Amino acid sequence: MSRFTPSKPLFKDSKAIDNYVLYNFGQKPTSGQIKHYWLSIAKMYFSVENYSMTAEFLFRLILISPQNYEALELLGTTYRKQGQLSNALEYYERALSTPNAPQTLAHDAAELCIQLVKKQKEESEIKNLMTKALYWIERKRSLNNNKYDPQAVQLLQKIYVILVRHAEKQLDKRSCLKRREGIPPVVNIKWIDESVKDLISSEETLIDPLLHILLTKSLLKIQDYQRAWKHVMQRRYNFVDSLEWNTFVKTTFPKYKLEATIDNQKEPLHEPTELIFFANDNVVRLSLNMS
Predict the structure, then answer these.
(1) From residue 16, how far is each of 7, 147, 234 by CA, in Å?
(2) Where are this protein's TPR repeats (predicted)?
(3) What distance in Å separates the CA atoms of residue 10 and residue 190, rounded to the nearest whole number?
(4) Cβ neighbours around 80 below 10 Å, total
(5) Are residue 119 and residue 171 in the same domain, yes or no?
(6) Is the pTM of this model over 0.85?
């Protein structure tokens, strides 16, 4: 969540805050008063969970100070508390775009993108939200010695799963229409493919055998055997100590062995047999170690 944590309320309810504001600022506060006091008053309303009044005071402040990071952040958090995620994302992004803004909200913005994408059906909107999520994660990383922190890794894994599963759905849809009508619809999932490639090669911290199993299953499902084999070969030494990965290769790939070719040629690869033997050996070794 946002870094804003309300302190113990100074007033017991909204009515007490209303009276305080009326007594101290009257019906027509000056621009100076709004600029200097409205953020504190908005925080008071937030602390008693009166989000409509919180937003009202923040709106008036933002009209005068549109680059006020704290006001934009708190308004985003207020919308988030109310489940208005699109509005929350808008104000988090505005806060992050202010001059010299701290990047504490970057992961919050990425998380909102991930939550919002689950409700989307339009391809363009899904692409837009996933691209934004990756942008905010990378922006935070650039200020963190180019390293992903644990929260970033969790967010990247969520994005990875969403992208791969969305690609599967799109390809299932295309396959279904092709069988029914004889003509596949135009479904552009190149952006998914490129995003997944970026994710799986981004950093060692993202290596997770279960996610790579998911990706490889997707490639097999769409009958892209060449890429599936290539991907498994590239990961053979990454996951030597993963029982899940080696069991997956051992049980899944023997039936696809003849599908492995060099590029688009018909010449079979020699590595698949070796790869399957390698996985078999690892399964035996790991099983013995566990027992």
Answers:
(1) 17, 47, 65
(2) 69-102
(3) 54
(4) 22
(5) yes
(6) no
Please write the tens of the pLDDT for every residue from 133-181.
999 998 888 887 877 788 888 888 888 888 877 877 776 665 554 545 5
Report pLDDT digits (tens) over 173-222. Answer: 655 545 455 444 444 556 766 776 666 666 554 567 877 787 787 777 77
Strand, helix or coil for residue 268? strand
Residue 254 amino acid letter: P
Contacts of 151 (CB under 8 A, 6+ apart): 107
41, 57 Cβ separation under 8 angstroms: yes
Tokens of 33: 């008063």
Flag whether pLDDT at 258 surpasses 70.
no
The CATH number that applies at residue 29 is 1.25.40.10
- 240 Cβ contact list (under 8 Å, min separation 6): 246, 282
Q: Which of 156, 188, 204 is the last residue of a domain?
A: 204
* Predicted pLDDT of residue 1: 52
Domains held by the chain: number: 3
Q: How far apart are CA 71 and CA 92, in angstroms?
A: 10
91-109 burial code (b ≥16 CB/10 A, e <16): bbbbbbebeebeeebbbbb
Which phi and psi (to 5°) does residue 64 adopt? -85, -40
Q: Which of 176, 204, 232 is where one domain is finished?
A: 204
The number of beta carbons lying within 10 Å of the beta carbon of residue 286 is 18
Q: Provide the β-strand partners of residue 261.
A: 268
CA 228 distance to own-chain centroid: 24
Q: Return the sign of the alpha-carbon dihedral for residues 147, 153, 155, 159.
A: positive
